[in-house]
């Protein structure tokens, strides 16, 4: 979506096609050489004379009318003609490439190209080369990746995929389409073996790459899983060591929590203590939030356990509420409303305060229109 | 005193009023990040006295022109023209600028030309139907809200189209022979509910598929397994709200994820953890908070605020007004980026969310800057004005649902679509 328009200036750039030169008549009589690379509109090409172009039917009073270049209109007038006749030919196939170059997001053209690939039994290896080049040019487009997936499926050959995607990711390590394609290939063709290593390399490059952390979770959950305590301990150690290197990395903290939340944050022994240790030297709003989650989890589990005394519960609740206040008022004020809500919610659930003791909703003036200054 | 941590710089002591410094710092910080040098933000006088102005007149002119004519820079959106209609019309309705009757009628006629004979709407006349322009077209027509607009929609064919893209696992492809992701479920649920063609059978297994998109981060991904992302999270959550199944999400985990997407310095939202702020997430992310507020309320949550959403509304308004406006009209991602109609729509939608708390019964406004900055409220599920939602629902619920069950002879089309769909081949006559 970005980059559609010029910054600030609303001048319309007239697209110049330097190769285009319709004034061939000027050269008649000279010893003149027809430059075969010169661009000719389809309407001027002999081989297309049999086809009647179909202009776009925008109606008499168009809206959102795009000032197409002459080249664009010409190509698409002929595309519409091909579509109307359902023509299955090599010239149609060639034209789809031109239409795609002009607008790679035209999913109707891509669909038609796929129909032609099958109908004309086109060389799919060549199509792989084509789609590789297109994706390199336009890696943030839905249609190009979907097309590649179709070709890989038809060939039933994923052998180039991991390397190709790695190349795209080397240019943009967070390209969502690239990761989506990668996960599809890995799952479909069971290519799990080297992926954890791949993820670790990416995290070496940039420990804040959340896509890589996600891929880590993806690989582990689909291979060893997170039930094995040895795996969990390994992952905890991995997280904590990344946190020591970059304490304000939200991804690492989210991964730690995300991995443990189903089993309970208080389940790994000694984790709370390790985090409390880190608090002294590597504190962050994420660490504090994690502590809060540990305390909340402990309270929830203490409901089932009889060996957690009332005093202990009160103490855990107090610590949890302290952290909420600290985050709301000092360490994570952008999320003040949220931390205050969590605090109220926790208090309410734990039932330690009666309704009369409940603190008023903080700093809310009387309802009604309020102008911020 | 400056503190350094992991490459981030932030200032501890402030010498001028909290609001001014935060706003100025916000812009300087974003510039610093983008340009690696300390470029001074060209400060509009209205911003200096800290009553930032929404440049209404400039945005209006930009939108008014775009609704008619677009430069060839928009060739890349030639397969998304109903989107252009929606982005522009919704922006105008937020600005409370009336659409002239003639223009409205022209939009109706154009969208009618985008409707496929086999149902649904395409990116342009003569193209194949696709769920995204279908969503946009239906929304645009509902914004117009005239009988002519409603009558454009061929409901029976629309239902045929939705069935044609439905997958056995509950998901939907975006178009015949196209890709699957959670946007499609939202587009389908949105149009089906507004036009009253929604049946339980149509969305059988869709709930479970959407739920499988909630991941370890608490947000939702485009397809199961991927990273949580604001756009997809909005689509999945709003779709579940329409289906009445939002309570099946881990709402607490989702809430934690989305509130964590607000950037503490910039005030705007990022789309994914550890990525940059972008004005469009002002809607996709912040728009989740009204949805979650309502969902939690329905679950019996007693401690919800009665005045504020659970994000910093003022900070978001500051980000949009100070960093996302093009002085010549139109809004944008972040300083240094160019304006476009997509960002104009979603920055304004986000601004509206940040200004308005509540629903029909309970309403609390927080307008940053002049009262003239006030936008119309927007419906957090459909992102058109709430009155237009009610009006459309009223109109279409007087009409019968076309049919209940899967049409006979509909093959279970898997995502693999190697052979041509003959029904699409002959509709350009």
Summarize the structure.
The complex is a heterodimer of chains A (373) and B (429). Chain A is mainly alpha-helical.
In words, what does this structure look like?
The complex is a heterodimer of chains A (373) and B (429). Chain A is mainly α and 373 residues long. Chain A has helices spanning 70-85, 90-102, 107-119, 124-137, 142-155, 161-171, 176-189, 195-205, 210-222, 229-245, 250-260, 271-281, 285-302, 310-331, 336-350, and strands at residues 65-66, 370-372. Chain A starts with 64 loop residues before the first strand and ends with a strand. In chain A, 57% of the residues lie in helices and 1% in strands. In chain A, helix 5 (142-155) runs parallel beside helix 7 (176-189), helix 8 (195-205) packs antiparallel against helix 9 and helix 12 (271-281) packs antiparallel against helix 13. Chain A contains 15 helices and 2 strands. Chain B has 429 residues and is mostly helical. Chain B is built from 18 helices and 5 strands. Chain B has helices at 18-35, 45-48, 56-68, 81-94, 101-114, 131-144, 147-152, 155-165, 182-194, 206-211, 230-243, 251-259, 281-284, 288-298, 313-323, 341-355, 386-397, 422-425, and strands at residues 2-5, 8-11, 69-70, 356-358, 363-368. In chain B, strands 1-2 form a two-stranded antiparallel sheet. In chain B, strands 4-5 form a two-stranded antiparallel ribbon. In chain B, a hairpin with a 4-residue loop joins strand 4 and strand 5. In chain B, helix 4 (81-94) packs parallel to helix 6, helix 9 (182-194) runs parallel beside helix 11 and helix 15 (313-323) packs antiparallel against helix 16. The longest helix of chain B is centred in the first third of the chain and has 18 residues, at 18-35. The termini of chain B are far apart. Residues 1-20, 33-43 and 414-429 of chain B have low confidence and may be disordered. The interface between A and B is large, with 96 and 117 residues.
């Amino acid at each position: 979506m970005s980059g559609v328009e010029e910054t600030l200036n609303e001048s319309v750039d007239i697209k110049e096609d330097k190769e285009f030169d319709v004034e061939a008549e000027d050269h008649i009589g000279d010893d003149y050489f027809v430059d075969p690379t010169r661009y000719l509109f389809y309407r001027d090409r002999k081989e297309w004379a049999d086809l009647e172009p179909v202009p776009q039917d925008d109606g008499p009073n168009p809206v959102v009318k795009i000032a197409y270049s002459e080249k664009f209109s010409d190509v698409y007038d002929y595309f519409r003609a091909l579509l109307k006749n359902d023509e299955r030919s090599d010239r149609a196939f060639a034209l789809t490439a031109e239409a795609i170059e002009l607008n790679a997001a035209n999913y109707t053209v891509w669909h038609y190209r796929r129909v032609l690939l099958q109908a004309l039994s086109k060389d799919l290896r060549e199509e792989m080369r084509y789609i590789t080049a297109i994706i390199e040019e336009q890696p943030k487009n839905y249609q190009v990746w979907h097309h590649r997936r179709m070709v890989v499926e038809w060939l039933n050959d994923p052998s180039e995929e991991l390397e190709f995607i790695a190349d795209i990711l080397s240019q943009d390590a967070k390209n969502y389409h690239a990761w989506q394609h990668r996960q599809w290939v890995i799952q479909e063709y069971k290519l799990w073996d080297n992926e954890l290593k791949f993820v670790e390399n990416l995290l070496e490059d940039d420990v804040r790459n959340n896509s890589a952390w996600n891929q880590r979770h993806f690989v582990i959950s689909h291979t060893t899983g997170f039930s094995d305590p040895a795996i969990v301990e390994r992952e905890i150690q991995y997280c904590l060591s990344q946190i020591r290197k970059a304490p304000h990395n939200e991804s690492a903290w989210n991964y730690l929590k995300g991995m443990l939340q189903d089993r309970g944050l208080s389940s790994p022994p000694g984790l709370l203590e390790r985090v409390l240790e880190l608090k002294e030297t590597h504190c962050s709003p994420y660490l504090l939030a994690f502590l809060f989650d540990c305390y909340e989890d402990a309270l929830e589990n203490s409901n089932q356990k009889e060996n957690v005394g009332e005093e202990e519960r009160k103490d855990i609740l107090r610590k949890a509420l302290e952290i909420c206040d600290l985050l709301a008022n000092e360490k994570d004020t952008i999320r003040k409303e949220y931390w205050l809500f969590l605090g109220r919610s926790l208090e309410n659930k734990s039932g330690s305060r009666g309704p009369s003791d409940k603190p008023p909703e903080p700093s809310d003036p009387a309802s009604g229109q309020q102008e911020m200054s | 005193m400056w503190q350094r941590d992991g490459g981030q710089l932030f200032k501890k002591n402030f010498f001028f009023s909290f609001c001014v410094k935060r706003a100025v710092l916000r812009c300087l910080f974003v510039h610093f990040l983008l340009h690696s040098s300390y470029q001074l933000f060209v400060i509009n006088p209205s911003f200096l006295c800290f009553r930032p102005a929404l440049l209404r007149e400039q945005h209006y002119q930009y939108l008014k022109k775009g609704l008619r004519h677009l430069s060839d820079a928009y060739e890349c959106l030639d397969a998304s023209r109903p989107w252009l209609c929606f982005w522009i019309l919704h922006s105008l309705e937020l600005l409370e600028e009336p659409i002239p009757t003639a223009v409205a009628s022209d939009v109706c006629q154009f969208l009618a030309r985008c409707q496929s004979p086999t149902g649904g709407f395409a990116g342009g006349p003569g193209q194949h139907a696709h769920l995204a322009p279908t969503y946009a077209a239906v929304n645009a027509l509902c914004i117009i809200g005239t009988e002519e607009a409603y009558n454009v929609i061929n409901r029976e064919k629309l239902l045929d189209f939705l069935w044609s893209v439905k997958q056995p696992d509950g998901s939907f492809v975006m178009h015949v022979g196209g890709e699957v992701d959670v946007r499609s479920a939202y587009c389908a649920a949105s149009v089906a509910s507004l036009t009253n063609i929604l049946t339980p059978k149509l969305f059988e297994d869709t709930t479970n598929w959407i739920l499988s998109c909630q991941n370890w981060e608490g947000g939702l991904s485009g397809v199961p397994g991927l990273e949580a992302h604001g756009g997809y999270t909005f689509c999945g959550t709003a779709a579940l709200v329409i289906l009445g199944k939002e309570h099946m999400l881990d709402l607490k985990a989702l809430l934690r994820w989305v509130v964590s997407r607000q950037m503490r310095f910039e005030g705007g939202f990022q789309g994914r953890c550890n990525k940059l702020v972008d004005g469009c997430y002002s809607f996709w992310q912040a728009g989740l908070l009204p949805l979650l507020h309502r969902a939690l309320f329905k679950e019996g949550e007693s401690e919800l605020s009665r005045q504020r959403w659970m994000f910093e509304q003022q900070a978001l308004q500051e980000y949009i007004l100070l960093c996302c406006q093009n002085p010549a009209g139109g809004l944008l991602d972040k300083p240094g980026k160019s304006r476009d109609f997509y960002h104009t729509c979603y920055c304004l939608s986000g601004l509206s969310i940040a200004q308005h708390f509540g629903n029909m019964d309970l309403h609390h406004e927080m307008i940053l800057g002049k009262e003239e900055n006030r936008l119309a409220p927007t419906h957090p599920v459909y992102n058109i004005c709430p009155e237009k939602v009610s009006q459309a629902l009223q109109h279409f619920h007087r009409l019968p649902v076309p049919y209940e069950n899967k049409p006979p002879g509909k093959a279970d089309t898997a995502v693999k679509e190697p052979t041509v769909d003959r029904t699409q081949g002959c509709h350009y006559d």
